[in-house]
Structures
1.
Amino acid sequence: MRERLAKRIEDKREELVALAQALVRIPTVNPPGEAYTECAQFVGRRLAARGFGVEYVRGVGSRGDSDRHPRTNVVAHREGSRPGPCVHFNSHIDVVETGYGWTVDPFAGVVKDGRVYGRGACDMKGGLAASIVAVEAILEEGIAFAGALEISGTVDEESGGFGGVGYLAERGYFSRPRVDHVIIPEPLDVDRVCVGHRGVWWSQVETRGRIAHGSMPFLGDSAIQHMAAFLHALEHDLAPRLRVRRTAQPVVPAGARASTLNVNSVHGGEPEHDGLPTPVVAHSCRAILDRRYLVEERPEDVKAEIVGLLEGLRATRPGFDFSIADVMEFPPVFTDPDAPVVQAVTQAIREVLGREAELVASPGTYDQKHVFRAGKLRDCIAYGPGILDLAHQPDEYVVIDDMVQSAKVMALAALRLQGTAS
Ligand SMILES: [Zn+2]
């Protein structure tokens, strides 16, 4: 049966390519969340024609949701021939903006050199296409699978997932008894199983000063200079401490196995109007800090460390005043390497690719956090055909062979989880 299934997926190569192209051609750019409904309905129509029950769930009231840009998710469900576990494939349908540097039309779905090019080809419409073809192949083979198969196309992963998997998870779509195992076909490479991710804490720090004429800065107090002192402390005091903290989790790339901090942005002083700056001493300066922390660190310590630096400056630097506010935070999530979904996908990779899967963890978060937090479901991983480094890049692509191979892995893993594989 396994050989027949693999052969069928091989025969569906052209169909898989065409599906990936069609998905890339729907420009689901987020923000603001373009064409979500069109993309969700495209997936829904296709699966409805294959006997799936299809539901559209709009993330009403979630950030960015409006009649102009509705947060439309699609969830497709197909019952098996007898009771058993439900295996759910979840892909986000949103893509990030194109940016500069493309040599092909990012929304044309160009096929070249055995690859499908386009924004989202790698992250993660190639993975969505592979999961759809994987379940279609199971159905076409007439395999009497137990339990149920589900496929969802969800929105807003690139902006936190609150209108997508977060919204659905809070409404039971990612909890037992409805769902037992979740595979998220994010681009982590075709032979890697991603068990989770580091924690994240975004905060906004504001330093304050006193406005004065720019020609007489000694009469004011520059918030930008105060921010510079804080940034100096981050670089020379905090960064060396973070660098030596290492996690035992298999985070890739290796640089992300340490604790990290990025200053995502700094905005200080008055904005220029039509290119004309204002000659004033800055009375406010804001920075967004992006702190990624390890499962070995406690979130309260992570915060206290930054606040401690700021309080130290207030105690020692004349005029220094600050405020700090949380912007977003998620703790680290890791699935047990012995969990059924890890074992099933690892085994399928061995069968299809003839090599051992590498267990990895992601430096940044993805929708697994909502499955853990709101869905209370621990049996969840990311596995998909895209190459991690290509995500969000110009000339993003997915390798067609990798899509085909990952579809085989997904199909075999699903059957194994349902106890159908033999
Ligand atoms: Zn993604």
2.
Amino acid sequence: MAEPRIVVVGAGPAGIRAAEVLATHRLPLVLVDEAPKGGGQIYRRAPDAFRRPYAARYGFEADKAQALHDAIDRLAGRIDYRPSTLVWNVFDRHLDTVSDGRTGRIAFDVLVLATGAMDRVLPIPGWTLPGVYTLGGAQIALKSQGCAVGKRVVFAGTGPLLYLVAYQYAKAGASVAAVLDTSPAATKRRALAGLAASSGTLAKGLYYWAWLAARRIAVEEGVTDIGIVGDEAVRAVRYRRDATEKSIPCDAVGMGFGLKSETQLADLAGCEFSFDPPSRQWLPERNADGESSVPGVYVAGDGAGIGGADAAELWGERIGLAVAARCGRAPDAARIAAIDRGLASLARFRAAIDRAFPVPPPETWSDRDATILCRCESIRIGEAKAAVRDFALVEMNRLKAVTRIGMGRCQGRMCGLAAAELLARDTGQPLAAVGRLRGQPPVKPMPIPWTTEA
Ligand SMILES: Cc1cc2nc3c(=O)[nH]c(=O)nc-3n(C[C@H](O)[C@H](O)[C@H](O)COP(=O)(O)OP(=O)(O)OC[C@H]3O[C@@H](n4cnc5c(N)ncnc54)[C@H](O)[C@@H]3O)c2cc1C
């Protein structure tokens, strides 16, 4: 019997480990990634000409980065690896792709979606000003281009990435004006016991915090009402702490309120989703093998729920083993049991992270009617509120139809979760009740292709 056509989307920790297992079992596969080099977000690679050493670029994670890069380099000659290729649609067991201006189509019997995550952005005043970056964007500038996003940068939001990126900037010699965390210190202290489930990661987080404090970089916790001040460019960040209004001059901001899973392809593949209260988002359902509700479609890594890079590698391997067994290869029960134990431990740590760095509720955002909610379509918070009131809207896709929120180039990847939070608040419903924006192709902005492959 012919081997099934296997496609893995995403060459980050999850996708690379899945591909590695499949290749080891001599299963032919296609590995697709929109990035020019494998590694994913955390282990993003710099252009060839850049010589910054691994330790400088990846810090404590240098060995893991090197191991993953070695793995994809070894794989590249053995599998059909297609970098710089965006998957923009899933339809009828085919993927639609675009690469270097050419569209293409890849048929699959088994699909592994390892599409990762992106920063969660909230519509705070001034967030669309030039000079405001996501935390991830600010980190990418540093990691892959070796440059800072400004001369004096404020990092604002919440989550482990907030402290990590501030540390990486300061360590690289950039001027960090302040770190503003919406999560109060007491909230984090309460989560400490759970965070100890991964003592090494906890120690790293505490180290970043202490390193910043030792250099007298202001770290403010429990801040609310963050707003970015400026007209043509960023001039300052204002915020409130303990009922006191404060302001810090700066010329750039890195902002992020945790991560959100990139689930659009799973949606287009027809996977069932369910609401995940801790992360306040809808996620594709999966069984212990990582298989979604659609037979043969697997979801791995952060794209199926934020778990971190170590969990992503384990999920990739776990799914690789499940797919290999599906293709008739002998299952490795001992390794599967070990992976499952590792994933269970990391899941406990993740739950504590969610408790330590909760998504701040809308009443703390300083949301103003004039603030842009949907950047692509230039819809302000006040316009959304008026539509909700005038049309008695209670559901996200109706909100989209009436206002165009989430209908622009980003397809709601930026504004969708925030719009849902506001709709839930304004209609007095639980977040799960307002639903989610349905995925639409193209899932990401793409060039207008000039050639179509046969
Ligand atoms: C910007 C950013 C920076 C981060 N930095 C850190 C950090 O410094 N330290 C840390 O511990 N964690 C960090 N994280 C979290 C960490 O990256 C993840 O936990 C980990 O990388 C998850 O691995 P993954 O394989 O699931 O996804 P990723 O590493 O995100 O890999 C997903 C891959 O899928 C590709 N892809 C996505 N959609 C498509 C598509 N439609 N078509 C083709 N390819 C696609 C992407 O190009 C990417 O290479 C960061 C996350 C983000 C979003």
